[in-house]
């Protein structure tokens, strides 16, 4: 699968290029201020599927994600503070709030392939050091490849990012567990999303669909963005912990 991987990663130029490629991952993933609407879909190996309507309110370093299903209504809220450094989850069915710390941040959310930290919007560039930047051949096509290690390891031992060689769009992110075993893969797909800004509605080509394959369970989780409203100005009270358990 691989060809001609170079391990000459010590030069400042290579490190700078690798950092820039990781920064492109942060730029591609949708972390806009205002309101973002999406669907979160879990498809199990058996073919059974579940869908949640997802709303993400973001202001500065804080965001609040709501998950609603047609059968149960509001099921979950997740409050992310300080760009995901602090994570609080509110289970609307049990009416309990949990603070996710250290390895708990890497637990699966709603049995999907997405962990709490995956949904937090935290910066990959700030939390991972690139260790190898090279070319990789996938299906006869040459890709840019960056391997990254976490600055503070809790569960992910290594991430591997693949980018298109010409556009440098991030297209795949492989996750290795604490034993170094590849256990899930995120495919990033681009397409038009309806964007409202300054009272005008346009369509922008963004990372509109994130598909996470869980190699342990065989399930596929899809995060599909449907609409962005940058005109929404979330009230600061939305991001206060004492208001998290309000329905």
Total count of domains: 1
**Major sheet summary line:** 13 strands, mixed
SS class: mainly beta
In CATH terms, the superfamily is Lipoprotein localisation LolA/LolB/LppX
Q: Class in CATH?
A: Mainly Beta
Share of β-strand residues: over 45%
The ordered H/E elements are HEEEEEEHEEEEEEE
Radius of gyration: 18 Å
Shape: globular
Q: How far is the N terminus from the C terminus?
A: 50 Å
Outline:
By secondary structure, the chain is mostly beta strands. The chain has helices at residues 12-28, 124-127; strands at residues 34-43, 49-59, 62-69, 73-81, 86-91, 96-100, 128-138, 141-150, 158-163, 170-176, 182-197, 200-214, 220-229.
Task: Note down, in words, how this protein is organized.
By secondary structure, this protein is mainly beta. It has a single domain, classed as outer membrane lipoprotein receptor (LolB), chain A, CATH 2.50.20. Helices cover 9% and strands 50% of the residues. It contains two helices and 13 strands; from the N terminus they run H-E-E-E-E-E-E-H-E-E-E-E-E-E-E. Strands 1, 2, 3, 4, 5, 6, 7, 8, 9, 10, 11, 12 and 13 form a 13-stranded mixed sheet that branches. The longest helix has 17 residues, at 12-28. The N and C termini lie far apart (50 Å). 29% of the residues are buried. The model is unreliable at 1-10 (pLDDT under 50).
